[in-house]
Design goal:
seven-stranded parallel beta sheet, 1060 residues, alpha/beta
């Protein structure tokens, strides 16, 4: 009798209500709702309560449980058929799993191809848990502990039983543990199967994991190393093409493939007779092997594409590179990590459609006409930018892992290598952010208290090198100097200089001169973008004749070593890397080759540009062995070119990529010179393929005359000098010579900071002995003040718009205007701490503008936030209306910077525009901003200058034909008056600080803008509005010879007169 099953929907919880079924029993494949248990007995059979039809239901349930029936009216016959099918599947998978186990017992060291023949049918089948052969091999791979030894727990966690290792137990007797890789047999099988049936890589198991995903999820990352080594680079695939065979050119072809690849090619040549198949040794080149196996090259390419896709999938979805970094076995993952990163950065040449060129790609190897230009791409580079589940980039993860390892006292060498590799291959990653934090900041924040480890210092230097050198940054992605400084120094107070440029210095650069860089607290990074030194000045040359001419440039009678102190000074600062070195050394007596070699030793250089004629090959090789770009200066001698191109010449520079050959016309004819150059290029490029050489000719540049960049400078006209300046000189000298002490007999040294925003201040203003003026006193040519001083520090916002243009530090030229302003500030207040801030005047010669408004805003911000200046002196102005054609955003940025300075109670002095009274001063900035003290110039008779309108200025100070005693010249303009006002303001603050320290009641804050206005107003006489006369408040000299009390009384009188 055939029983059909009603379409009941039964809940398992109702099973206990069925008569004859014990509580907790399960009903196969039937679901019954609790509602059906509450129906009345009068309902139809299909709707009656279960207890009413319990005997029948129990019978049916027993039948279904025995035959595997499902609800829905299936007959026992169908149930028997489905059960047999399922049983057959189980049996087949059981046999497949047994086959997999037999495969793992094979002796992989001997003729694996023949041994695999009986088991080939299992390669296309699945065993338990839907695992294919690759899943099974990977599951048998042992997991290694931290000490690389197998433990009992790891052996049990292999997924199967580690039986492949057991089968080789006897063979391992007598071997040291370190001599045997326990995973080697698994690797051999894994490689063989992938080569034979690569499609197994894409098959998931019952957990939806492909074999490689299973390897990663189970922690068997060593399998990844085996796998990625099966991926052939594009260059190798291209080399497998028959046209690449060297035998076509009657040469021996040495192109060979690894046996793991040749084995499959040989197997394809002997598909039926496996016993006679070659052993996998590659006696012949790969091209000949592929020629005997038609279609095998296409199979290799197809298999390679599958492997590549699988690898991409692992790095995209499984975050493989992140796992290798974070794995506890990071040391053993280094080789795999390196290979994967190299593969991600692999370049691929693709033709650029629609773009052709008749020009030479290489200057010495012309391309065919209209040949498409190849474009090099890195299609997998984006994989290095993938982030993990926390949003971290690879570099963030590597640095975080480094910090953790350092704190745990773990070995760091391999982590250092991983970070180095990421910086080398993907330098753009240093600017990636996670929560506005860069990898470099993560490194700095992870620094432990105490002395940094050598590994940490090494990693920090790598980041600096990558950032300062703009490595990997091209075109619009190149970072400006300011962007790089912001990256390295979020705290601007810790900024260091990333270049050493003295090219505009006209004075002798001696050891004493360099010492003043230390005094001014000028700090340099250990990595410099470039170093540039000017021609040796006349005073430092051995010959009195310093002019460079065509006749004497080739007549070298001796060598100079005047820059020895410079290079020793740099080495003493710990500088080890200089990207570009440029020394202008074309002069009658240049530095000798031995000196150049010794000077550059110890520095790592990328570009060598020592401008000396015919420099020797050994000098370059020994002094700059790692150089990539070489600038050679040639006098026309044929023997010099032959020496550079010979076997012992420049071809020994392993990293050399480019040579710029600068040709100075010699005595030979032009035609002969061209032949020499062509021969040189051919010989050197033959010895060093790929080297680019670019010859160009230049005219000999004679030594230029120094130009004076100051404006309004001239000889003394004998006009009356400004009375109050000469009167103040005596007071300043006496104040400078006296030491004040407080009640505890402690020296009082007030610090008044003045920020001079201008075109820089030359460092030579501080090289004269400070005692000179004190020793000479009033007999010093009628000058009773200190004419030389030292700049306390500064910064520069010089930023050239020209590519590869060099930076100008604040103390390196032109400095004409800034020097003059600094002279007057120091003259009025000799104890001031002066900070020179250079604005961006890079476009002075190209656009005509003196500076950029944006750099002025940046300078003000630096003066307020970093310098902590009390006074900001701005001896300049610019027109801000529509006619000025200035970027409105820059003007707004400038206004905001001024506003912040005023909000922080900084005292700002700004000069009048000096363009007459017809222009509205409110259209000029910064003087047009409310809160800035507007300064105009006055005549030597103490009257406002005619160029000043009555309503445009607040105060007028000396500004017409004022003698600058430091230079002996006269200057004119409101800019001079503004510098004098800043010096006077500094003097007032200095005296107020001394008075407070002496116990004098100073009721007003001298560093407040309104207090300073009041002090200036107190010094203005009724008969000359707006023209302060400080000599009415300050005495000619301080009564220091009458004792400290008398000096204190004089200071108290000064404070009262100033309204304090």
């Amino acid at each position: 009798m055939i029983h059909t099953v009603p379409d009941f929907i039964i809940d398992a919880r109702t099973c206990a209500s069925i008569s004859g079924v014990s509580k907790g029993s399960k009903v196969p494949s039937l679901l019954v709702t609790p509602a059906t248990c509450c129906q009345s007995h009068t309902q139809t059979t299909s709707q009656r309560p279960l207890n009413a039809i319990a005997p029948h239901i129990v019978y049916l349930i027993l039948i279904m449980s025995q035959h595997g029936l499902k609800a829905g009216g299936k007959t026992p016959k169908n149930a028997v058929h489905g059960s047999r099918k399922k049983s057959n599947l189980i049996e087949m998978r059981k046999k497949t799993t047994e086959g997999f186990a037999e495969i793992l017992k094979l002796d992989v060291q001997h003729d694996l191809t023949n041994q695999m023949q009986p088991y080939l049918k299992f390669l296309n089948q699945k065993g338990d848990s839907d695992q294919n052969i690759l899943h099974y091999i990977i599951g048998d791979v042992p997991k290694f502990q931290a000490d690389d030894e197998m433990s009992e727990e790891s052996f049990e966690d292999c997924g199967q039983s580690g039986q492949l290792n057991e089968s080789l137990e006897d063979a391992l007797e007598g071997f040291e543990e370190s001599d045997y890789d326990q995973s080697m047999p698994h690797r051999r099988l894994f490689e063989w199967v992938v080569m034979k049936c690569v499609e197994r890589l894409t098959e998931p198991n019952d957990s939806s994991l492909t074999p490689m995903q299973y390897a990663i999820s189970s922690g068997r990352l060593q399998v990844v190393d085996w796998f990625q080594k099966l991926l052939l680079p594009d260059k190798t695939l291209k080399g497998l093409e028959p046209v690449s065979c060297a035998s076509l050119q009657s040469k021996d072809c040495s192109f060979r493939l690894d046996p793991v690849f040749t084995e499959q090619i040989q197997l394809a040549n002997h598909p039926s007779d496996h016993s006679s198949a070659p052993s996998g040794k590659n006696e012949v080149c790969a091209h000949k092997m592929l020629a005997t196996a038609p279609g095998e090259l296409d199979k290799i390419k197809s298999r390679n594409e599958t492997i590549a896709k699988t690898l991409v999938d692992l790095m995209e979805k499984s975050k493989l590179l992140h796992l290798l970094l974070k794995d506890s076995q990071v040391d053993s993952n280094l080789a795999t990590f390196e290979s994967l990163v190299d593969w991600c950065c692999q370049e691929k040449e693709e033709p650029q459609e629609g773009v052709h060129s008749t020009q030479e790609l290489n200057p010495h190897k012309p391309t065919e006409l209209n040949q498409p230009l190849p474009v090099k791409t890195q299609p997998h580079l984006y994989l290095l930018e993938k982030r993990d589940e926390k949003g971290e980039t690879l570099l963030h993860s590597a640095v975080s892992r480094f910090n953790q390892a350092e704190s745990a006292m773990d070995p760091l060498q391999n982590l250092v290598r991983m970070i180095e590799l990421l910086l080398e291959k993907h330098p753009q990653g240093i600017y990636s952010l996670i929560k506005n934090v860069t990898p470099y900041q993560v490194l700095i924040m992870g620094c432990m208290v105490g002395t940094p480890s050598p590994e940490r210092r090494s990693v920090e230097e790598m980041f600096k090198e990558c950032c300062i050198g703009n490595i990997g940054q091209k075109g619009k992605t190149r970072k400006t100097r300011r962007q790089r400084l912001d990256y390295l120094y979020p705290d601007k107070r810790k900024e260091r200089n990333i270049e050493f440029d003295l090219s505009a210095v006209r004075e002798p650069i001696t050891a004493e001169w360099l010492d003043h860089l230390d005094f001014c607290n000028i700090q340099y990074e250990t990595v410099l973008e470039y170093l540039r030194l000017p021609p040796v000045p006349s005073a430092q040359k051995h010959s009195s004749s310093a002019s460079v001419t065509q006749s004497n440039i080739f007549d070298r009678q001796g060598y100079s070593d005047v820059y020895a102190s410079v290079f020793e000074w740099l080495k003493g600062k710990g500088i080890w890397k200089i990207f570009r070195v440029r020394v202008d050394d074309i002069c009658p007596r240049p530095h000798g080759d031995s000196f150049i070699e010794a000077a550059l030793s110890g520095f790592q250089l990328d570009e060598f540009d020592w401008r000396k004629l015919d420099i020797g090959s050994d000098t370059i090789i020994n002094g700059a062995p790692d150089v990539k770009i070489l600038n050679l200066y040639w006098s026309g001698s044929r023997s010099v070119l032959q020496g550079w191109a010979c076997e012992d010449g420049l071809c020994r520079l392993e990293n050399l990529e480019k040579i710029n050959l600068i040709i100075y016309m010699g005595n030979d004819r032009e035609e002969a010179l061209n032949q020499y150059v062509e021969s040189f290029i051919q010989r050197l490029t033959n010895r060093k393929p790929g080297l680019q050489i670019f010859p160009r000719r230049v005219s000999l540049d004679t030594e230029g005359n120094n130009k004076d960049h100051g404006k309004g400078l001239g000889g003394s006209s004998g006009r009356p000098q400004h009375l109050w300046l000469s009167e103040m000189d005596g007071f300043n000298l006496s104040l400078d010579n006296y030491t004040f002490k407080d009640a505890n007999n402690k020296r009082i040294v007030p610090e008044v900071r003045v920020a001079l925003i201008d075109d820089g201040v030359s460092i030579d203003h501080g090289v004269e002995d400070l005692n000179t003026s004190r020793q000479n006193g009033s007999n010093n040519g009628g000058r009773s003040y200190r004419s030389k001083y030292k700049v306390a520090g500064g910064t520069s916002f010089y930023e050239s718009t020209l590519e590869d243009s060099e930076f100008r530090q604040y103390f390196v030229g032109p400095g004409g205007h800034g020097n003059t302003m600094a002279d007057f500030i120091n003259r009025v207040c000799p104890n001031v701490r002066l900070f020179a801030i250079r604005v961006n005047d890079a476009g002075r010669n190209t656009t005509g503008a003196r500076f950029t408004v944006k750099s002025c805003a940046e300078a003000i911000t630096w003066a307020v936030e970093t310098c902590k200046a009390d006074i900001i002196s701005m001896s300049w102005s610019f027109q801000s209306d529509a006619q000025a054609k200035i970027n409105p955003d820059d003007v707004q940025l400038f206004r905001e910077a001024i506003g912040k300075a005023i909000a922080q109670k900084k005292i700002l002095f700004a000069s009048l525009h000096d363009q007459g009274s017809t222009l509205d001063y409110k259209t000029f900035l910064p003087m047009g901003i409310q809160g800035v003290i507007r300064i105009g110039s006055s005549t030597s008779y103490g009257k406002p200058s005619d160029m000043n309108s009555d309503g445009s200025i607040e105060f007028a100070l000396p500004g017409e034909k004022v003698e600058n005693h430091a230079s002996g010249k006269e200057v004119t303009g409101s800019s001079v008056a503004t510098a004098i006002a800043a010096g006077l303001g500094a003097l007032i603050i200095y005296c107020a600080d001394v008075a407070k320290a002496l116990g004098i009641d100073v009721r007003r804050d001298p560093r407040d803008m309104e207090t300073m206005r009041l002090a200036f107003t107190k010094m203005v006489p009724a008969e000359q509005p707006k023209c302060p006369t400080p000599y009415t408040v300050f005495p000619k000299v301080m009564p220091l010879d009458k004792g400290a009390e008398k000096a204190k009384e004089e200071l108290q009188r000064i404070m009262i007169n100033l309204g304090f």
